[in-house]
Description:
Residues 23-407 form the Major facilitator superfamily (MFS) profile domain. GO terms for molecular function: xenobiotic transmembrane transporter activity. This is Bcr/CflA family efflux transporter. Belongs to the major facilitator superfamily. Bcr/CmlA family. By secondary structure, the chain is an all-alpha fold. The protein contains 16 helices and no strands. It has a single domain (20-195, 214-403), classed as Up-down Bundle (Growth Hormone, Chain: A). Mean pLDDT is 84; it is low at 1-13 and 421-426. Helix 1 (20-39) packs antiparallel against helix 9, helix 7 runs antiparallel to helix 12 and helix 13 packs antiparallel against helix 16.
Amino acid sequence: MDSNAPRSSSAPSLINWPPQGEFVSLVAILMAMNALSIDIVLPALGLIGESLDQSDGNAIQLIITIYIFSFGCGQLVLGPVSDRFGRRPLLLIALGLFAVANGLAASASDFSHLLAARCAQGLTAAALRVSALAIVRDRYQGRQMAKTMSLVMMVFMAVPLMAPLLGQILIGLGPWPLIFEASAVLSGFVFLWVALRLPESLPPARRRRISLSTLIDGYRLIISHRSAWGYMLASGFVFGVLFSFITASNQILLEVYEIGNKFPLAFAGVASGLAVSNFFNSRLVEAYGMRALSHTALILFLGVNCLHAVLAFVGYQPFWLFTVMTALPFVMLGFLGPNFTALALDPLGKVAGLATSVQGFISTGIAGLFGGWVAHLYNGTPEPYAYGVAILSAGAVAMVTWTERGQLRAFRLVKEPPTPPESPSA
């Protein structure tokens, strides 16, 4: 399939898409604004707690957890809105409200007001992710969608690599509200980029009116499709490992290993493997297929996290080993996230917005709860983290095994032609 061709005959043929590189960059920054809102705050958590008279480290984690949960929940509502009114209007309104929410966070005078602002940030950022994924699904399908998502994720991963360092620079230049003020300025820039360069990808003929019966039919279609539903649930477990590290990293790296100002470097070192593997997935997925790559990565993902749990049980976790055992699963994530997303959304083109909302709720909202649970187990040691991510990895393997009826394609890396897309009503 031509990378610039519409995804199907029902897609508009006259859409004036920006060049592929610009398209990938714009979708990536729309999705990365969520990651930025999470990771840029990490170096400032202690300062925010002191400023707002909050000394309980586990309570301070709510700055991250409540954002992730509201981000996930918001997608359930906003997906149908995107299917009804189109992608551009929702994007532009959300970018404006995202800037307002950042302003409210910057001006928060107590901890509860900050949490309310973070909740508003999460809800508005949800619209950015729902619309960005739906636009990709509007334009591509199958392996081409997985390849595009890998390229998006490769650009996207530059944000979590750099965000903690950027956050540390900003709190070195001024008080912690400067972090949220900078995010508000960024949202204004992206607003102009979308307004000037991104066309509407959902023509009126393909829009779905919002009604209870329409939503019920859409949810029934998603839940009854074994492959789509199964890979959505598997994504919840897989991304739960990601959010476990994001939420727990501040306490583990600063309190247990006492790395101080080296935190952004350690965080980037762990996350860098994800960017590299997304690049390789974009190059390999068209030849070897989404299932072969993701199933192989999934078994390795489980093996490494179980080994980490064993090392934690015997009490051997020096800093270098903790870093290695945390970074290796992130390498596998680059082959899991884009492929699981494509496998879940590919059969659901008729309800792309609703499907991306459900997938987003599970892969961020549910995963955020998993991550918050693992992080909340923190007891002054890294052991609970190791046990928690091993449990989540086992859940992901169980879910994919159920989805594929026990027929995993792990380690079957043989070049094969693409298979036709599954029927949306399967």
